[in-house]
Amino acid sequence: GQNIDQPTEMTATEGAIVQINCTYQTSGFNGLFWYQQHAGEAPTFLSYNVLDGLEEKGRFSSFLSRSKGYSYLLLKELQMKDSASYLCAVVDSNYQLIWGAGTKLIIKP
Amino acid sequence: DVKVTQSSRYLVKRTGEKVFLECVQDMDHENMFWYRQDPGLGLRLIYFSYDVKMKEKGDIPEGYSVSREKKERFSLILESASTNQTSMYLCASSSRLDYNEQFFGPGTRLTVL
Q1: Does B42 sit within 8 Å of A99, measured CB to CB?
Q2: d(CA B68, CA A46)
Q3: Which of chain B's residues have a Cβ under 8 Å away from the Cβ of A98?
Q4: Is the CB of residue A51 less than 8 Å away from at least one CB of chain B?
Q5: Is the CB of B40 less than 8 angstroms away from the CB of A8?
Q6: Which of A35, B1, B33, B41 has the smallest number of CB atoms closer than 10 Å to its CB?
Q7: Residues B90 and B43: beta-carbon distance below 8 Å
Q8: Whole-angstrom Cα distance, residue A9 to residue A11?
């Protein structure tokens, strides 16, 4: 079967750094997406990785290791507005997205 | 600004009713998707469409049907709503399947009583 694992919930302090992990076992791999979803809103695109390594975009970075079936999203200089759920999704061999359940990130002042 | 819109943000229906959820995108995207999102579970694909009048079953198609008569519009139909179909329904679209970045609508929270 196909499986995406992420922690259910994480808590961090404003101004700090947090790393949200995602491990996957899927039938094929054609890329990995991270999305952000604020409560009651639609998911919005954050990053895409298809090759091993780190992709940096402002305060957010995403890392991929295909051999380990592992990715993480790194958020720096946390702000209160970063309180949201973060969804990991893997593109499988049929080019469909397989979604993790999401990690709810709580930012405390 | 790219946009995916859904016909309702909140909907309350009774068991056995026929329910229509509509989704419209203005990005000229080929591919459109219907998901449901439930607490503790990832987004689960109900149906998708990669062209007008084409549809493919996703992971949980039972109890649902879809219609795509025009490129910009993708409708989800619950033929006879049941309480276990109470959920958040999200529509999405993408331009390419090989790089399947999906753009989402705001969602419809459906409650079936």
Answers
A1: yes
A2: 29
A3: 42
A4: no
A5: yes
A6: B1
A7: yes
A8: 7
The pLDDT tens digits along chain A (109 residues) read 789 999 999 999 999 999 999 999 998 999 999 999 999 899 999 999 999 999 999 999 999 999 999 999 999 999 999 999 999 999 999 888 999 999 999 999 9
* CA B97/CA B84 separation, integer angstroms: 30
Residue with tokens 């702000």: A79
From the CA of A22, how many Å to the nearest CA of chain B? Answer: 13
What is the interface size between A and B, counted as CB pairs within 8 Å?
49
Q: Test A97 with B102 for CB contact under 8 angstroms.
A: yes
Dist. CA B22–CA B91, nearest whole Å: 9
Please state, in angstroms and as integers, the Cα–Cα distance from residue B30 to each residue in A1, A44, A106, following that order: 28, 19, 36
Cα atoms in the 13 Å half-sphere on the side-chain side of A57 = 10
Q: Is the pLDDT of residue B1 over 70?
A: no
| Amino acid identity for residue A70 in this structure | Y
Q: What is the pLDDT of residue B2?
A: 66
Give the separation between CA A51 and CA A28, rounded to whole angstroms: 14
pLDDT band of residue B32 (cuts 50, 70, 90) is very high
**Per-residue DSSP letters for B18-61?**
-EEEEEEESS--SEEEEEEE-TTS--EEEEEESSTT--EE-S--
Q: How many CB atoms lie within 10 A of CB B20?
A: 12
Band of pLDDT at residue B8, cut at 50, 70 and 90: very high
